[in-house]
Amino acid sequence: MNEEITASEVLVIDENGVKLGVFPTDEAIEIADSRLLDLVEVAPLAEPPVCRVLDYGKYRYQLQKKDKDARKKQKVQALKEMKMRPKIDEHDYDFKVRAIKNFLEDGHRVKVSVFFRGREMSFLEKGEDVLNRVIADCELVGKSEGPARMEGRYMRVMLTPQSSTSAKSNRLKAERDETDSSKTKTANAKKTIYPDYDSDDDEE
């Protein structure tokens, strides 16, 4: 910036983005000074180096803000774990699967674990059924890294998130299918109650 620029001449672009031309560095600095601004080297490897006339304090603030915003948008992938039982009830299962889907949609990997107590170790297939059901119910937003495996008294499977684009596309498709299915059920119900009912009447 300014006197720190070592090149003998530079290509100058003014504060409005207009290319002023190539000037000796001292003269380019004077141009910036006359406008109460700074001469900042933005492309040092170019021939000649490119410098812009700008408010360096404001320029630096904008760069820091842009960098901060970019870091905010970056999703940090974490490993989440969801524990279940081989005889999990339907309500608890639905609640935990929704949580797993949310984790996957946020870009996190999820370790799903089924814990066996005492005699339950004799019925490992029940735990495997639970994990296979989880994999199937979450297939639109995540996929299994491999088959379920035993670790002590735990049977575990690891789910990895689909790409954000794929997950969004799959979710929208599922929502459309659910809407279409709901419309079909409503139409069938009306036909049952009103034999002369025609679905085209709704559109009118």
Written description of the protein model:
The structure is a single chain. The protein is an alpha+beta fold and 204 residues long. It is built from 6 helices and 9 strands; from the N terminus they run E-E-H-E-E-H-E-H-E-H-E-E-E-H-H. The strands form 2 sheets. Strands 5, 6, 7, 8 and 9 form a 5-stranded mixed sheet that branches. The mean pLDDT is 84.
Number of DSSP strand runs? 9
Percent range for β-strand residues: 15-25%
What is the distance, rounded to the nearest whole angstrom, between the alpha carbons of the first and last residues?
Answer: 70 Å
SSE succession: EEHEEHEHEHEEEHH
Global morphology: elongated
How many helix segments? Answer: 6
Q: What structural category arises from helix and sheet content? A: alpha+beta
- Unreliable stretches covering 5 or more consecutive residues: none
Mean pLDDT across all amino acids? 84
The helix fraction, in percent, is: 40-55%
